[in-house]
Amino acid sequence: MDLAAETRGTGPAIVCLPMISTTRAATAAAFGPALAGAGLRETYLDLPGYGDSPAHCRPTSQAVLDTVIAWLDRHLDAPVLLAGASYGAYLAAGIARQRPDLVRGLLLVCPGVAIAPRSRTLPEHRPPAGPAGWLDAAPCDLRAHLDTALGHRTPAVVATVLAALTAGGPGDEAFQQALRTGPGYALADEDTDTVFDGPVSVLTGRQDGIVGYTDQFHALRRYPHGTFSVIDEAGHYLPYEQPALLRAHTREWLRRTRD
């Protein structure tokens, strides 16, 4: 099965994988500003069942990962740089475990480490209160999620995140529901401490109430050349909350990939 993709620029390849429930348009809005001018061939993918990619695989994370691996094998000369946010970072780390020959470096932003929410270590303290009415523009059914997810709590950030969440097509909603609620949502090897020896940068949000930042630090044992950063006034949507800091950390990671 092929995947819908958008490619920009020329040079060494970097493939960027999306957060769950988002499309390649949202991923480009997250990573594009951080990668601008870096001299890379940027590729943004829609995962199976999302955006413009058909749901022609089983609704499991392993099947989704296998589909991405097959796409990389067909379309790019390995190894490549991989970047991802949240679920996209979870998949990127899985690819590095299962097919390290495909991966030259990892940029993991607010990565999922454990799929099951009960297995995650979340921040003990609530984020500081935002200004009055900071969530007013959000639909009622998203306000609790954004209140949990965001550390930089302003109307401008909310507007940026809402634009990302609604960018691109809706995809196959039945497939998405089956993926997120089925027994195959977790990769069987998510707890495996397989070492990936390439340059890695892990960025987390201090106020991320979705995946936290502690588990990501402990997972750093898998990356002997890994840098870990936890950013204040940032939550689960860090690329949209702190774009300048994402750009700075991305540039430092890219320098290490070229050494």
From TrEMBL:
A GO molecular-function annotation: hydrolase activity
Q: Which domain of life is it from?
A: Bacteria
Q: Which Pfam families match?
A: Abhydrolase_6 (PF12697)
Q: Does the keyword Metal-binding apply?
A: no
The protein's UniProt keywords, in alphabetical order, are: Hydrolase
Annotated AB hydrolase-1 domain residues: 34-246
Q: Does the keyword Hydrolase apply?
A: yes
PANTHER family from the UniProt entry? HYDROLASE, PUTATIVE (AFU_ORTHOLOGUE AFUA_4G13070)-RELATED, MONOACYLGLYCEROL LIPASE
- This protein is called what? Alpha/beta hydrolase
What is the species listed in this Swiss-Prot or TrEMBL entry? Micromonospora orduensis
